[in-house]
């Protein structure tokens, strides 16, 4: 009995040992997952089988029914369709067996029809954009037809939140799948993952999930850009600065310039992306447009459009007519541009496309230190003609009784057909057929004019035409009516009159004071009142004055005659002292009259005596008294001035 008992214990030990060995071997080989075999598209020639396992260094064998593929060192295997031609359209069993040393472990088997199974690659090249509060997602299409899609979403600011799932079908074009996710917040940042599968395959498989994609908020504002242009030696330096925009990852600048940098290639758009908030470029004298916008993965902001006009046409010279026959210099880039509108819109043309009556802008530039430098720029007509259209928007305004203001816009450059030399402005009265037309030549750069010298309350017809070197174009006309002359306001007249009187009075006072200071007044002599003598008897008053005979005595011939110069001096001296002598004589006469004696009057005898004594004085003092040439003779109140010429 004891021996049997010992044998049973030994048998149990052996069984446990066998079981332990089997468990140890099993734990060393982890079974792979059930494999998936598929094509990437319905038309793909190859199949791909995939599985997963913990230990990726383990080698595996792939079984497709009786076909065995040995020692696969990866977790996938790509096989060509040819070996499986007889198997692709029927159900087959697929499994994977892993082995480590003598240990083997197999996955569960799966029954599939290989030609019915399609699994797309994970979505690639995902793009996004906001349409109000709806998010548009696009990615590269695996096939032309639509696909089913699953989309996971959550807010980027709440990464611990669970994902929200949306299942939908895509819309497709030839190369892209499109999905519109509605009712989101466009100013919020989201995280997105996408997977898709075929809607045409009989056994479609979901693709792998795409990597997590960040969807930024929408950029709604236009960048605030400032521009500074510096003109320097044939080139223009343009410095752009702008404010940093929220949610913008970079900034895009699209520069369309006629000079296209420093080469002579065909004009193209010049685009750069930058993370800075400033940009410096150099452009030629031609018109340039620069677009600046903020960008992120969800799209771009509305662009800020910066217009850099060409050098004003008024400052450009006229090209030589032989320009087309001149070969451009080496290392220069000739450019021809058709001027399409008044804002110098440019269209590039070649020198073989030059037409008659069309204005062109020609310039040559070359590259100096990487900057386009324009050294020749001019306007060109191959052949000129008269304008096709009249000046635009010709109007009259602010009419008065004798004038009016006129304004107009230039003839479009496409209709000028030549260089305008001037405008011709003519006016004529409508009321009369015989009135002469008055015309004025106005500079081609002027757009306003004041027409004067008109007649009040008259209707005029005013015409304006553009003139080239070939002739005049159509005329623009306007009819004006001058106003009646308005009377000046009475109150205004009174104010002016009052002001004139005040100013005149002030000026008179000022001038009088100045005159008094410069020319003082001569004092007026004081003459006492004359009291006539009253005779004692009436008989004396009735006495009449008698005139005795006047005796003139000639000078003695021996007396030396007075020179004529001395005579004139004596006359002047006599006139100067006449008033004084007369006053003294009057005083003496008054005293005699008051004396009341008629005997004191001069008698002929006394007169003779006086003359004699005077002659004797002259004889003695003739050289000292050269100016004494006349004698005063008194007779009964009468005074006679006798000169030597009358003797």
UniProtKB/TrEMBL annotation:
Biased composition (Basic and acidic residues): 609-618
Leader peptide range in chain numbering: 1-28
Keyword set, alphabetical order: Signal
Cited CDD domains: FN3
Organism: Pagothenia borchgrevinki (Bald rockcod)
Name under which the protein is recorded: Fibronectin type-III domain-containing protein
Limits of the Fibronectin type-III domain: 122-217, 390-486
Taxon lineage: Eukaryota, Metazoa, Chordata, Craniata, Vertebrata
Region (Disordered) residue spans: 562-622
Gene3D superfamilies: Immunoglobulins
PANTHER family: INTERLEUKIN-12 RECEPTOR SUBUNIT BETA-1-RELATED, INTERLEUKIN-27 SUBUNIT BETA
One Pfam family of this chain: fn3
Biased segments, Acidic residues type: 575-587
């Amino acid at each position: 009995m004891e021996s049997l008992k010992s044998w049973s214990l030994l048998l149990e030990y052996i069984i446990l040992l066998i079981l332990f060995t089997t468990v140890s071997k099993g734990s060393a080989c982890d079974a792979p997952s059930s494999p998936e075999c598929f094509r990437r598209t319905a038309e793909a020639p190859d199949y791909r089988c995939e599985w997963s396992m913990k230990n990726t260094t383990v080698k595996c064998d792939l079984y497709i029914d009786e076909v065995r593929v040995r020692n696969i060192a990866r977790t996938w295997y790509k096989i060509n369709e040819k070996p499986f031609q007889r198997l692709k359209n029927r159900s087959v069993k697929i499994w994977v067996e892993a082995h480590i040393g003598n240990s083997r472990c197999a996955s569960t088997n799966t029954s599939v029809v290989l030609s019915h199974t399609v699994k797309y690659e994970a979505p690639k090249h995902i793009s996004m954009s906001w349409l109000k509060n709806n998010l548009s997602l696009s990615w590269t299409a695996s096939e032309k037809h639509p696909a089913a899609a699953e989309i996971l979403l959550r807010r980027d600011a709440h990464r611990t939140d669970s994902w929200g799932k949306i299942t939908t079908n895509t819309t497709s074009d030839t190369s892209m799948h499109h999905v519109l996710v509605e009712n989101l917040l466009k100013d919020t940042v989201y995280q997105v993952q996408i997977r898709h599968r075929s809607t045409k395959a009989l056994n479609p498989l979901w693709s792998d999930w795409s990597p997590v994609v960040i969807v930024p908020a929408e950029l709604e504002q236009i960048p605030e850009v400032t521009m500074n242009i510096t003109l320097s030696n044939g080139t223009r330096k343009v410095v752009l600065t702008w404010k940093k925009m929220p949610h913008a990852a970079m900034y895009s600048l699209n520069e369309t310039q006629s000079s296209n940098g420093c080469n002579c290639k065909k004009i193209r758009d010049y685009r750069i992306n930058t993370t800075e908030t400033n940009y410096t470029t150099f452009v030629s004298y031609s018109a340039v447009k620069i677009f600046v916008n903020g960008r992120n993965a969800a799209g771009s902001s509305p662009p800020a459009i910066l217009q850099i006009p060409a050098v004003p046409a008024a400052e450009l010279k006229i090209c030589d007519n032989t320009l087309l026959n001149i070969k451009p210099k080496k290392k220069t880039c000739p450019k021809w541009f058709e001027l399409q509108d008044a804002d110098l819109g440019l269209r590039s043309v070649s020198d073989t496309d030059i037409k008659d009556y069309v204005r062109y802008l020609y310039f040559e530039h070359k590259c100096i230190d990487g900057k386009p430098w324009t050294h020749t720029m001019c306007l060109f007509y191959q052949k000129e003609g008269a304008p096709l259209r009249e000046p635009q928007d010709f109007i009259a305004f602010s009419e008065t009784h004798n004038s009016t203001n006129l304004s107009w816009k230039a003839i479009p450059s496409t209709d000028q057909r030549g260089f305008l030399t001037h405008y011709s402005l003519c006016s004529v009265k409508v009321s009369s057929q015989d009135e002469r037309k008055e015309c004025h030549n106005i500079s081609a750069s002027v757009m306003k004019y004041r027409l004067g010298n008109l007649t009040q309350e008259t209707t005029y017809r005013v015409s304006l035409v553009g003139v080239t070197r070939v002739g005049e174009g159509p005329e623009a006309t306007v009819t004006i009516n001058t106003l009646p002359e308005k009377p000046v306001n009475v109150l205004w007249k009174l104010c002016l009159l009052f002001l004139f009187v005040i100013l005149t009075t002030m000026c008179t006072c000022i001038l009088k004071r100045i005159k008094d200071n410069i020319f003082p007044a001569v004092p007026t002599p004081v003459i006492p009142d004359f009291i006539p003598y009253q005779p004692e008897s009436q008989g004396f008053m009735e006495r009449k004055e008698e005139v005795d005979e006047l005796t003139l005595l000639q000078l003695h011939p021996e007396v030396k005659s007075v020179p004529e110069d001395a005579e004139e001096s004596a006359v002047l001296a006599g006139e100067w002292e006449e008033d004084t002598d007369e006053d003294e004589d009057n005083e003496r006469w008054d005293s005699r009259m008051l004396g009341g004696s008629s005997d004191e009057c001069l008698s002929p005898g006394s007169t003779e005596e006086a003359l004699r004594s005077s002659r004797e004085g002259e004889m003695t003092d003739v050289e000292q008294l050269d100016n004494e040439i006349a004698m005063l003779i008194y007779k009964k109140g009468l005074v006679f001035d006798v000169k030597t010429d009358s003797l």
